[in-house]
Amino acid sequence: MQIYNTLTRSKQEFIPLHAPHVGMYVCGPTVYGDAHLGHARPAITFDLLYRYLTHLGYKVRYVRNITDVGHLEHDADEGEDKIQKKARLEQLEPMEVVQYYLNRYHRDMEALNVLPPSIEPHASGHIIEQIEFIKKILAAGYAYESEGSVYFDVEKYARDFHYGKLSGRNIEELYAETRELDGQQEKRHSFDFALWKKASPEHIMHWPSPWSEGFPGWHLECSTMGTKYLGEQFDIHGGGMDLMFPHHEAEIAQSCAALGHDTVKYWMHNNMITIAGKKMGKSYGNFITLEQFFTGQHPLLSKPFTPMTIRFFILMAHYRSTVDFSSEALEAAEKGLARLTEAYTRLMKLQPAATSTVDVKGLRERCEEAMADDLNSPIVISHLFDSARAVNTVFDGKATLSQADLTELQQVWKLFVEDILGLRMNAGEAASGTQEAYKGAVDLLLNMRLDAKREKNWGLSDKIRNELTALGFNIKDTKDGFEWSL
Fold it and tell me: Hey, how many other C-beta atoms are within 10 angstroms of the C-beta on 250?
């Protein structure tokens, strides 16, 4: 398996440090608002990686952090804590805000069929560990205390290590690009970043430390929790491309300063979701929440879209490519998913013949090759669509499949469609009790229509079909009865 390593800017063969065990750390959400499409992309990208590594036989410890302290409103070091601000505006305790939005995030992830991580640590639950990590950096001489806060000394670090090797920046560029900001006179340089911030009197999220009553810097949590749960060296660190600088660059610097060496072997970054060419995000005010997608309650949406349509839309593009959102693009994804679902349903209903008159061999190998080539999910989907043509030909009675070929085809589709791509079949949704009842109700109506046709009650037959069609159902009469999809 080859994956693109952002650190080396090349595809590399994936060789775990301690096979068959794999350590994977992914930056999770800052829980101060509902998840939007931009949050869905890294969740689905690294869920795909998690599923594929598990399929290959690796034992994956997947850590996805929750940022619930230290992410400030203006930049990494200045402004009000985002969660504290939300708590102040809504007159709630900060951890009430965290729990409310974390519950909603988990609900959205479950709807998208994103598997839960092995460990989901909170920054606020690891204050002691973060303080100890700062002590190591101070002892190594790469940080300094100033007025109760502790800052990372980027200039000194850059003399001993390669600062900027992930993002491609260097210390000279930082001198040219940054300026001294009001309120930051306590820093030696404006590009130094906080490891610990002294809390102002109005700041309600703070803890005791050797330097002041305060709170940890945003960048510190991932270095601390990554090494706590995965060790001083682990395999994969992932996240969105927007985190490459300064967040992940700061992580590398902190870890090297504290431990004397890199901690991460492979850095992986997914690209952005854009709207009209501009990154989707809360800071730009152009985001659409996942709940709005599911309900259709947004001016840019023509209709509601199911969680599986959202997942399929994201998987249709390679994780390192930009995806530009439009309602039309989602409608196209919805149609593609419906075609795939129909072929899957038909495949599972096929009966074997004595021999095969259509060639379906090699699908498993082609899909494996695409996944092993840096998780190329769009190519996997294209191979499945190619195979769907053969499935439909057999279903229509124009070709046959032997028992061996049919079993292999069914197993390959189940593996790649459901287990690896994570697409729930059965009208694209989970087979929950509600969905089963919903499916049963539609089947009941269409069976009533069949009875009406047998009795030549054409008025009732047409009424059932027309009203279901008006509600958005696609109904197809077959020699064995009917098929339907939404």
Answer: 25
